[in-house]
Design goal:
globular; 11 helices; seven-stranded parallel sheet; 291 residues; 40% helix; alpha/beta; single chain
Length: 291
């Protein structure tokens, strides 16, 4: 049977998933907003679809699996707003559907642990929008939906190394502040594992085993690069934008037991140290090979 993934908003995490699936014979249709990005997707072996702007129904008719990485806006979930009826019509034919959400739906727990059963209490507007979007997707009749709540995403091209090299890394210290993280390749393997073991209605936290203060990650990356770490800056003196400050309004540790027990996942990068070392090794290999 042909396996066809329709990936809505085919961005950083979905591209990592495509790299896993394509060697196994999957056909990937990925939507993007621009013709320029469409060319990049085609170069990766993904069938690009510029959307919004084209009819999504033919792709939905061919899809066996559906993934949405598109975030909500002030009016709600833009995918369901524009294509909700078509998705509902396709729902009975789909073997699996996934929605990428965020651990921001749990709100602030003052450094305490949360799991998938923790009541949703978002502390930011972004988090409240995500809760509403999760509920909207769960309300699509007959859709075999799986919700994935992602911690802070990092990986090649999106890590503390890039901020250090750009001179934008800051070691902002707020007493008791911790974040959870997840390497993009671990996101991909969790999604692939869920597609292999569908469980409609399931919710999964995607986070590694080592929640940590953000300044520790910057210090580790600096050490691996062999450069001095930026000086520590007290949170109160950091003069952050409202958006940046909002990330520090929540502190929690995210449990990941369910992806291990239910999906048999063994994290490739169980902590940020392993993830950063792997990113740097990949960069060095690319440099040596001239790519």
């Amino acid at each position: 049977m042909d396996r066809v993934l329709l990936s809505l908003g085919h961005g950083y995490s979905a591209r990592a998933l495509a790299r896993l699936l394509r060697p196994e014979g999957w056909r990937i249709i990925g939507t993007t907003r621009s013709a320029e990005k469409a060319e990049a997707l085609a170069a990766e072996g993904v069938e690009p679809l510029v959307w919004p702007g084209s009819d999504l129904a033919p792709a939905l008719a061919e899809a066996t699996h559906l993934l949405s990485s598109v975030g909500p806006d002030a009016e709600g979930d833009p995918v369901l707003r524009q294509a909700g009826a078509a998705i509902a019509a396709a729902a009975p034919r789909l073997a699996w559907a996934g929605y990428l959400s965020t651990t921001g739906v749990y709100g602030d727990h003052r450094g305490g642990w949360v799991d998938e059963a923790t009541p949703l209490a978002p502390a930011t507007e972004r988090g409240r929008r995500r809760v509403a979007a999760e509920q909207a997707w769960a309300g699509v009749p007959g859709l075999p939906l799986h919700i994935f709540r992602l911690a802070g995403i990092y990986g090649p091209g999106r890590s503390a190394f890039d901020r250090l090299r750009a001179g934008t890394a800051r070691r902002i210290v707020k007493e008791g502040q911790v974040f959870s993280r997840i390497h993009v390749d671990d996101i991909a393997q969790v999604l692939a594992a869920s597609m292999a073991r569908p469980d409609p209605g399931a919710v999964y936290n995607l986070a590694d085993d080592a929640p940590a203060p953000p300044q520790d990650v910057i210090a580790c990356a600096a050490e691996l690069l062999g450069v001095p770490p930026p000086p520590e800056i007290p949170f109160e003196a950091a003069e952050l934008s409202p958006m940046a400050a909002s990330f520090y309004s929540e502190s929690k540790r995210v449990r990941n037991d369910r992806i291990k027990a239910a999906l048999g996942v063994r994290l490739l990068y169980p902590d940020y140290r392993a993830g950063l070392r792997a990113i740097l090794a990949e960069e060095c290999d690319a440099t040596r090979s001239g790519t």
